[in-house]
Fold this sequence. Notes:
By secondary structure, this protein is an alpha+beta fold.
Amino acid sequence: MNHSSQEWAPQAQRPEPYGHAPAPAPAETVIHIPDRRLRRYDKVAPGEPTATVRQAEPGPEGAPLAYVHVPQNAPKGGRQARLAFTVTGPNGEPLGSVRPVGDGVYEVYGGDGALLGRITRRSGRTLPWPRRVQWSVRPAQGGAPLTGEVGTRRAWAVFVLISPLYFLCWAVMAAQGSLWLLLGEKGEAKKEAAWEMEPPTWTRWRAADEPEAAIEYRTGRKYRLAAPRLDHRLAYTQAVLHVWDRA
């Protein structure tokens, strides 16, 4: 697949809303990426997919929609340098490939090598003023970009306020876990160490002039996709990168 001659820019084709998918899709689909093997891709057995995109609703729950393949020999990378990977359909047909082209920037190509769009991750920060992690999806065939910020302002404010209490509880649980470990109760020690407070996760990808989201994530690695607002291949890729980011 030749990517070197591809340039990210709107193509000279009749634009359709948000990179309309070539195949028909239901008005709304919920997908689930149930495993967290993306960060442990080098441990996956040869020939097995690193992650599986499954259907949650409508239709048969758990039905595979796509498989994600990350090269086992690829070097480790941080959140701003996720690795190139490919996506195949349930029967092994190529759906697309993803190539990092800069810090937090990824180009997505279809199975035929045509550019589908670009996905960008902007890092969050605390100083000089708070800023949430932001994702954006820009289809190559025209249409306004979709943007989504991780967590709501209210949720982050509550998270910051209760963080001191969480760390106090964590210190108590860690002490209890150490005591269980000294007593030889490894199972109980793991239970104490497993408790954690996750930061806000709710993310809604939408166009600036659209009230409804094209992709919505709440929790449990489940994503609601509103077709035909976004090509399902771009939606799968964004979901995989989002799960990978939080794994």
